[in-house]
Every structure is written in C-alpha cells, then in structure tokens.
C-alpha cells in the first residue's frame, strides 16, 4: 500500500480494525502496510482507542511483547442498547402484528440489516468476556441473528437442521419435546460441523418454554461440547414451566390478546438491574 497521510491512515486503520473484531493484529502488520514506524502506529492506535471508548464503539486491547499487538472488541453501551430495544418493543406492540394463536409477525423487523446488526452487537457485548468457539442456532428464523452475532465476535456459525441434509454427510440426530406444543420433534447436526469439546453460544429468535434450546443443549452433549451462553431475541413469560433458565433475553413478550389485538412487549432480562 502506498504511504498515506496520517489522517488517511487513521481512517484506513479504523476500517481495518472494524472488519476484524476479536483478531490479534501485530503492530508490524500496520507498520508494513503503511510503511510507517511502529512508534507512529502506536500513536495512531492510541487516538483510535480513545475515540472508540469515548463514542461507545468498543474497546481496543493492547498486548505487549514479541507476540503482541492490538485487538478490537466491539461493544455497545447498555443504555444505547436499551433505547434501541425499547423502540423495537414499541414496533412489536402494533395490533396488526398479532397472528392467530397469539404469535407475532416479526419477518419485516428480522429482515432489516441495521436491526440485525444492532441485535448482533448487543449479544456480542453481552457475551464478550466468555471463551467461545462457535455460534449455534436452529433453522430458520434464528439464522440471521446468529450470523449477525458471529460477525461481531469473529466466530463461525453452526446451523442445526430439522432434518438431516445428505450434502452435509453423516449427522447426529436427536428427538426433543417442543416446550409449547409438547410434540416430539427431531433435530440434527452434521458430524463435521462441530469439533468435539467446542464451547458454544446458542442464539435463537424466540423462546417460550425453551424446548428447542434444550434440544440443542442435549445435541451438544452428543459432541461432548459445552454451552458457553444462550441468547434469545424475545422470550415469552406466558409459560407454565421453563425448560431453560440460564439465558439472556433482549425483549420479553408479557401479553398477547388475539381478540383485542393488544400486545405488551418490554425489555428483556439483559437490562435487569444488577
């Protein structure tokens, strides 16, 4: 790359870091990339670090030593996430979203890249301090959320299927009981998809009793993998028995009246006072 003026270099370095979250980047990488001294690069990184933290964009960690470098950790302030989620709650309370059976229409919201990015960044912030190897979800509605979260954590995504797919090779399948319908269903995961002993972050779009999530937890047991965390976009509190209790939710559906079309959605347990 040609030698840049400092102002241009700061812009380019910032973009380089934003697109490589949770990645350790040696100072020599920047020094060679911009044909600049390490001392100059260190000064630039100090400026970027200050802006990131002051503007609530994340943290820039510096690791000293020969094998050291810098690592960008995307984070969003809980106050900013709360404001974002409260706006989503207001949208979800629109009467026309009520579907037969007390379900909510969310496809339009889940189809907005900006919304998905904010949800993914919030989950990435909530689970930033945990050692994780992969993000897992079940097809189909949880897939966009899983990818959005993984993009901010620099992790691969594993998708659990309702039926095994011949193009993915041999798979492990289990039966699980749906928490809401009490029906026995099947989910499967290709053997090559997940390494034995992996630490997994489960992401799902909606949780009632948690039967699907518990099914994924049981499936992970077949791979000798461990659950590093569970994040759900919306949970419902209208359940008699919770199968999963250790999770983080961003929103909570507290009431749906199919007759009057009244819906009540509030921020989830992530925003509860600590």
From TrEMBL:
Pfam families assigned: Pribosyltran, PuR_N
Superkingdom classification of source: Bacteria
Molecular function per GO: DNA binding
Domain Phosphoribosyltransferase residue range list: 126-259
InterPro entries with a match to the protein in the record: PRTase-like, PRTase_dom, Pur/Pyrimidine_PRTase, PuR_N, PurR_Bsub, WH-like_DNA-bd_sf, WH_DNA-bd_sf
Domain (Bacterial purine repressor N-terminal) ranges: 5-74
PANTHER family named in the record: HYPOXANTHINE/GUANINE PHOSPHORIBOSYLTRANSFERASE, PUR OPERON REPRESSOR
CDD domains hit by this protein: PRTases_typeI
Family (UniProt): Belongs to the purine/pyrimidine phosphoribosyltransferase family. PurR subfamily.
Protein name: Pur operon repressor
Native species: Paenibacillus chitinolyticus
The protein's assembly and partners: Homodimer.
Residues in coiled coil: none
Keywords, ordered alphabetically: DNA-binding, Transcription, Transcription regulation
């Amino acid at each position: 790359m040609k030698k840049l003026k400092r102002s241009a270099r700061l812009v380019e370095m910032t973009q380089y870091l934003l697109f490589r979250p949770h990645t350790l980047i040696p100072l020599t990488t920047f020094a060679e990339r911009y044909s600049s001294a390490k001392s100059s690069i260190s000064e630039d990184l100090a400026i970027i670090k200050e802006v990131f933290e002051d503007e609530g964009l994340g943290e820039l960690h510096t690791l000293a030593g020969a094998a050291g470098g810098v690592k960008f950790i995307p984070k969003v302030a809980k106050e900013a996430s709360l404001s974002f989620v409260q706006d989503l709650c207001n949208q979800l309370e629109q009467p026309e979203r009520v579907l037969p059976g007390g379900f909510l229409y969310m496809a339009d919201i889940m189809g907005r890249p900006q919304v998905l990015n904010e949800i993914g960044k919030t989950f990435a912030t909530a689970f930033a301090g945990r050692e994780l190897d992969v993000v897992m979800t079940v097809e189909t509605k949880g897939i966009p959320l899983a990818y959005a979260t993984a993009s901010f954590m620099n992790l691969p995504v594993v998708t659990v299927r309702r039926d095994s797919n011949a193009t993915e090779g041999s798979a492990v399948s289990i039966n699980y009981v749906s928490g809401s319908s009490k029906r026995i269903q099947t989910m499967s995961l290709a053997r090559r998809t997940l390494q034995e002993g992996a630490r997994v972050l489960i992401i799902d779009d909606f949780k009632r009793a948690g039967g699907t999530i518990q099914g994924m937890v049981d499936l992970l047991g077949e791979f000798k993998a461990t659950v590093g965390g569970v994040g759900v976009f919306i949970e419902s509190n209208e359940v008699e028995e919770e199968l999963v209790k250790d999770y983080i939710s961003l929103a909570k559906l507290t009431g749906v009246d199919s007759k009057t079309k009244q819906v009540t959605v509030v921020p989830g347990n992530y925003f509860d006072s600590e």
